[in-house]
Amino acid sequence: MLFGVCPFPSSDCCGVNMTQCLKGSSTDLFYIRIFFEEDTKNIQKELAEVYLFKADMTCINWEERECLKNWDITDMRNPGYNDLKDSETSNDDSDKSSETSEEFDSKELDMSCEIWEEIDDLKDAILFMDLARDHSVSYNRVTASELGGFIHIRGEMGKIIYSYHVKTDTISLFSIPYPMLPTSHVFMWECRLEDDHGEANCIADSKVEMFRTNEISLRPDTHDGVECNESYLLNISFDLLEMIMELCVGVEYMNFRATCKQCLLAAPLIRWSNRTSIRRLQKYLLVSPLLMVVDKKQDIITFTDPMVGDNYFMKNSQVLMDVNNKICCSRFGWLLFESIHWNCLVFFNPFTNDLWQLPKAEHIFDSLCFSAPPTSLDCMVVGFTTSCVYIHYMNREPAWRTLDTHPHNVCSSSFYGRDLYALCEQGELIVINNLAREDYSWKLVETEAPKGYCRSSTRYFLGNFDQHRLLVSVGAYGEAVEVFKLNESIRKWEKLNSLGKHAIYICGTTCLCIEAKLPKMENKIFFPRLHTKNRKVVFYSLDTCMYHTFDGENIQEHLGDFCGTTYHLSFNVWIEPNWS
């Protein structure tokens, strides 16, 4: 008997290559679907999305499923799979697909999908997958709760283990031999002072009530009759405690409020809005760009300070619920991405909630970049496809125009003033001068590819360094990091051993090179990764040629590559705080 169709993920999938498997345990059947990033010449294939589903076999009415025996699955396309290449198929194939689809009864299809439940927390269980051999899967229960909740995936090359934590949607990398099982991510709201003897209930049980008015009311589950048996760590004056609470934001404020009775009295219940949170964040977030992570499961936005490691929480905006993690550009405190809800490209400032819609484009862009904030008359937006380059002049023209029709695979791009630089996968550099004028000039610079120590698949990031074009190369699993500047007179990339007083912040779609506000942040490259043990942001030092994290005023943790680090699968990007 045909059991039914495979379940479909609740969100759009960003990966290209897919692996799927089934595993039964007792009366449960687990279905795992893994998507990988596109495996091209210059990009190392990495995990892009992981989805987990479960079916309770005891709840299935097998008599009702007798109707599924009549399904003809010969040459059947997945009816729920969204393939962007449909338009390229022939008319005959389209007719065949439509005829096959007509054979399905929608009720039968719905019935086969209803048995699956998408799992967002494995709790005290773990799954193991071996992609290096036979794609075998095993399921186990663990006695230590901090070891549960993971899907451990051995990579296809057999050298790396990806530990996916289902609840936090994060992946930790470990090299083989596997030294230890990863510990679960400890959230701020799960922590309390050791000597509080349970006066405050676990913060993980706190209730976060969302309102349609785009406000958040944080109400921790604390009892009114809290005994005043407080920790000696909070033996400070009430006025000083109130000053501390003034610096707390959102969920952070709730955590502090639930710690003890004294904090409860010093922190009155606040109905939080984004503007309330922003006013407090604005007081002390001026040192560095922040690592922004959109957690759709918990409906919050987390901003992480790479220097001190503090996390600041805000309610997730509806605008960011459908953001594409792979096609997004961040500059000047603004995000540029394609919104499914608005059916167009949008500019969004998460610090002010300002939203600017762009005219609808006729094409799906592979990458984007822009020259200035959308509030500026000089703002230009450029979108790249494999065959064309398109431009839109914000505040000047109502529609997009075609800029170039030469086929190029652009992997990174950057504006310098009114000049556009775009790096192609083959190593060529597209240069468009005076883009704001009608008589702009277009040329293809045959630059010699940078030669360094990276021997494996390399990812490139293009940016600006003073008056020079900057290129950052990162080897597979971070095994080698190098920085180059373009010598335009001889058309060659020259290696840089020092950034001077500058710091670089890179992620999948963004490369920010700015002057460091503090000396200890100079000559470093910050990645959207956390150290698996101390949960601090990882950076690469050009002085030591190693990876480190900050520990207050000190630098600690020496890593040779990305093994031992954790990264988010949820949408994440570096963003400069901007309240204007």
Automatic annotation (TrEMBL):
Cleavable signal peptide: none
Residue span of region Disordered: 82-106
InterPro entries, sorted: KIB1-4_b-propeller
Domain KIB1-4 beta-propeller: 325-537
Segments of skewed composition (Basic and acidic residues): 83-106
PANTHER family: TRANSMEMBRANE PROTEIN
The protein's name: KIB1-4 beta-propeller domain-containing protein
Organism whose genome encodes this protein: Artemisia annua
